[in-house]
Amino acid sequence: MTNPDILMYCTKFCPYCLRAHMLLKSKGVEYRTINVGGDQKLWDEMEEKSGRNTVPQIFIDDYHVGGYDDLAACDRAGQLDSLLKI
Questions:
Q1: I need a labelling partner for 71 at 20 to 30 A (CA). Which of 1, 65, 83, 85 fits?
Q2: Could you give the number of structural domains in the chain?
Q3: Domain enclosing residue 71, as ranges
Q4: pTM for this model (two decimals)
Q5: Are 81 and 3 a contacting pair, CB within 8 Å?
């Protein structure tokens, strides 16, 4: 089974971003981050891709999970592990 490509758009001091980092780390998966703080071009890219203008925005492969609340809800529903292929 191949590992999914996990991408999180975030900012450095966002508490929801930090919670998303902690949740993903607890799952033992590798993920990439794009810090959109202070970079309007990257923020616009995130907004266009996700349809949202808040951080974090998390993608697993081509699936847009959403923000931290969406990620945590997915985990509580028992669906996150299958998305992460663990």
A1: 1
A2: 1
A3: 6-84
A4: 0.94
A5: no
In the numeric block, the tokens 């998390």 are attached to 58
CA dist 13 → 10, 17, 21, 61, 79 (Å): 9, 8, 12, 25, 28
Q: Which H/E stretch holds residue 24?
A: helix 15-26
The series of mean pLDDT values per 10 residues for the chain, 86 residues long, is: 91 97 97 97 98 98 97 98 94
- For the record, the structure tokens of 70 come out as 């969406």
Look at residue 79 and give its three-state secondary structure.
coil
Residues 77, 70: Cα–Cα separation, whole Å: 10
CATH number reported for the structural domain that contains residue 52 in this entry? 3.40.30.10
Residue tagged 């980092």 (tokens): 21
